[in-house]
Design goal:
Chains A, B: Homotetramer; composed of two disulfide-linked dimers. The structure is a homodimer. Chain A is globular and about 75 Å long. With about 625 residues, chain A is mainly β. In chain A, helix 3 runs antiparallel to helix 5. Chain A folds into three domains: about 150 residues, Sandwich (Immunoglobulin-like); about 150 residues, Jelly Rolls (Sandwich); about 220 residues, Jelly Rolls. In chain A, strands 4, 5, 6, 7, 10, 11 and 37 form a seven-stranded antiparallel sheet that branches. In chain A, strands 12, 15, 19, 20, 23 and 24 form a six-stranded mixed sheet that branches. A six-stranded mixed sheet of chain A has the order 31-28-34-25-35-36. Helix content of chain A is about 10%, strand content about 40%. The longest helix of chain A has 16 residues. At the A-B interface, helix 3 and helix 5 of A face helix 3 and helix 5 of B.
Amino acid sequence: MQTVRGRSCLQNLKLREVVSVYFTMLAVVLVILIASFQGVVLKADGFPYKVPLDPQGALELSWNISYPEEVVHFQLSVKELKYGVMLGMSDRGEFRNADFVILWSDGHNSYFGDAWSDQHGRLQLDAQQDYQLLEAHRTPEGLNLIFKRAFSTCDPKDYLIEDGTVHLIYGLLEQPVHSLGAINISSIPKGLQRVQLLKPEISIPELPDDVVTFEVLAPNVTIPNQETTYWCYITELPDNFPKHHIVMYEPVITKGNEAIVHHIEVFQCAPEYDTIPHYNGPCDSKMKPERLNYCRHVLAAWAMGAKAFYYPEEAGLAFGGSGSSKYLRLEVHYHNPLELKGRIDSSGIRLYYTPSLRKYDAGIMELGLVYTPVMAIPPHEKDFILTGYCTDKCTQTALPHGGIHIFASQLHTHLTGRKVATILVRNGAEVEIVNMDNHFSAHFQEIRMLKKVVKVLPGESLITSCTYNTEDRSKATVGGFGILDEMCVNYIHYYPQSDLELCKSAVDLGYLQKYFNFMNRFNNEEICMCPQASVTEQYNSVPWNSFSRDVLQSLYDFAPISMHCNKSTALRFPGEWEKQPLPKITKKLPSPVPHCDTTECSPAKAPIIVNIDKKKN
Amino acid sequence: MQTVRGRSCLQNLKLREVVSVYFTMLAVVLVILIASFQGVVLKADGFPYKVPLDPQGALELSWNISYPEEVVHFQLSVKELKYGVMLGMSDRGEFRNADFVILWSDGHNSYFGDAWSDQHGRLQLDAQQDYQLLEAHRTPEGLNLIFKRAFSTCDPKDYLIEDGTVHLIYGLLEQPVHSLGAINISSIPKGLQRVQLLKPEISIPELPDDVVTFEVLAPNVTIPNQETTYWCYITELPDNFPKHHIVMYEPVITKGNEAIVHHIEVFQCAPEYDTIPHYNGPCDSKMKPERLNYCRHVLAAWAMGAKAFYYPEEAGLAFGGSGSSKYLRLEVHYHNPLELKGRIDSSGIRLYYTPSLRKYDAGIMELGLVYTPVMAIPPHEKDFILTGYCTDKCTQTALPHGGIHIFASQLHTHLTGRKVATILVRNGAEVEIVNMDNHFSAHFQEIRMLKKVVKVLPGESLITSCTYNTEDRSKATVGGFGILDEMCVNYIHYYPQSDLELCKSAVDLGYLQKYFNFMNRFNNEEICMCPQASVTEQYNSVPWNSFSRDVLQSLYDFAPISMHCNKSTALRFPGEWEKQPLPKITKKLPSPVPHCDTTECSPAKAPIIVNIDKKKN
């Protein structure tokens, strides 16, 4: 192997001198920079995280994270490289306004550089080169590139790598590239892969000696040759299976299907039903027994790019025992955009459980908005925010004296959701982000371990906000169960388990009626406000404009709420829960300031030439 | 004279090395930096602008501006320097969160540096030193400091020098200073002076040969020994004075009173009155004849720091002739905080006029909000915006075919006004800022020449927004003439004069009533909405909270307006002016991005030692 070009400060100064020359040449003429770089020792402790980028598995990205340095090291493996490859990040996977690292060849030389695409998708070299190439070599399988980038580069053309979902995009260059501006993104092979890049750095608890595994796997399913399939399969635990604690689970992915198995969930069925019919088929089939809809208690969830999920050593998820169903439902999402035929799959999840119960049962609690049409998003909105409250009064009433510890979280909306965040509030002051995803996608809903366990005491509030985009809709989107309705939910995983299963809110219906009445009068009584009209009908009759939108938003931000402070029996805790005041926020969390160390040596200003050795050493 | 220390790039590197040492020493121990600076040739072409900072005239600031370099050169003259002087800038003249340049002495050495005060008024050295000392020398009168600073330093601790009002603050150090943190701002002599720092760079038109002057001066007034006096004096033009054009005017300030004469205006009386009684006394005196209230047509206005006002060479302000009054009212604002006794003053304004009429009469037009209580600001607001419109329909109806040219502007609000801006809109797109002041003060209302003449064509709109702060008020502040009511006005000076004297708006009263009704119902009919209640009474009965505030703001941003598209006769132009739609803005002006040249040599990171020679050479 050869050829990594490390850069020292002094060498950067050299580079900088060259820049002025560089930029005065025509854009198509790439400068040949023959500098004597020193080899660099790769500090990467391997690449623990890995994800296929394309459905064929021709591109694979693995990475590691250094939190102290705020840097990600990437390893991009490419089979059958032609004239280059580009890897990018953008807000939601668009190829416009995206940030790219590109390896390209003009037929003579290969170049490596940081680039960006404008609003028309035209590529340009970045004035500040923030990807640093560490290694480029051929392998028996193809090409391996190792490079690194800081979370935040402070270059406005660069993507800020944040917690939560990152939309990775890639493209393959199949023609010689004489200038980046000449690459026509619309005509090259390309794709999108969502991933949580900044995995939490948590210590893995030791598994007990008596741990047993149970695999819930698809039974040699032939993956349908269609883009999207949700496969449902019912399996069951032994009769009289006593209570255990699940302490870990991990994905089991059939070799070769890594790029197709998109996500997997295991649900337990409702204990109310003694039997659940066996089933093995698509979840949306008309043949699917109705009763499968009562298998919704999440035991495990995995999505592409995720690794094993460990419970904290004090807690485990109750599994088996009286009062729980022996029936489990496996759901596998196959994403098969190439519509490959005849692929056989036995992917699933391997549960690790122990009969030696841990100190605490873990619980799952729903935060956010009640599933009701009283909360709605006007049409044509770019970023409309709905907020659900778990009030101080409910946590005071329902949480154990010592509070609870949240260690994981699964955010959930339907199709128009764009961002989700839950914030902990103490005495009117925002104190901590429980979980946040600024690039949330309904197509990528993992259970994520929190970087730091969050303790919530009785009397504190949890505020969950969801941002929606309804630009392509012409009617109001109301809350509800339908795929075209919306939800705003954070399923928090916590211990010790409490009776509080659901802590959610919705605006008071009486105040919403005052809003409808005002809109009616404002529009000279032209709206049908028949008293028998449903809330959804009333929303549909509002003439949507900046005023009706703004006043609705103001109403949601001010009017009293109906609190659902519910036990697992779906009954409310005793108390008055109607017309409750909104939690008052007197102190916001400071906005995060990206760390930009401007005193350090500036990054390079031009791409570098890459020598790729034909043989791996 | 000695001793200016220019800094070259290399010297900065030296400085930078010293910094690390510097910051490791105790804050009270100032490093002694003995570097061999080279003398620098001051590029200042003199200092055309000058303003006294304090009422005694002990501190005087003069300056010049380089627009190509975006730099201001300052000359600060100090009489009787003790242990130092500080000059600062802040949003509204506060000593907290302010940006300072400080010359201080510990008794042995003198230092010059860039500093800032935190929210508690504590001083700290700036990590980045953005004031550059060019000269420091003794003069027969005291000390002269010459230094420069960029408009924008991109240091978040530094004030951004913008167009419009700048609040200058100063303080005198009368004890040795061992550390900036030890300076107790609350106990040093200090003060505030408002000034327009970024004067427009416009070429001065040549005056005609037959120009004549007419001085409107205070007749040896004894300035009252009280902080604030508005002095009124009636003078008159000769009988049968024919029409002339005023082409220029300039201030005439009695020597010694430069720090007391705050602003001066000359008004012409209404032609409806054949005689106006003579008067010479305070404007608020009960002895002042009632008729003086009809002398409101502005001929000239000057405020401290302003220079001569020139009309563009194509236009002049009509002066004399049939249909105009021969009576003029002079108003001088004396600001005498030291309550000096027995000062005699003959300040005023010298008008330059010509019988050779220029091509165009200049006109003055009022933009903004109608003086009506239907536009109101809720109490306890930090920055509430009201907007007045001059619609495309009005300009289409009333402006001459070739449009008008705006060359000057006087912004006007009452006490709670904080910002004022007028923006020109063409086909729904904001195209140009006519005038803007982000640090507007009701105490400093100059007529300002525009940097660039703005042409307005029939069919374009002019949108004037005012930002108010009512944090110290407990009731709504309504529009109106009273000093505790508010206004939002831009008096634009333009040519050729048109019949359109006033182009202003207010929200439609019917829609405002719908708002009051909604607030009433929302609060369970608890508000008195007696039909005979005045708008002001209804505003006073609204329970102010985030909801009533937000909905009012949304109403103002959406509801139709009543347009006042008025002739000088105070009658409207023919047409329908009620329930007009708001101009739709589809494209905003981009936010200005401060220019920060980070590729240049970084500024110093520590203060420098100053050698002040005792003798001027």
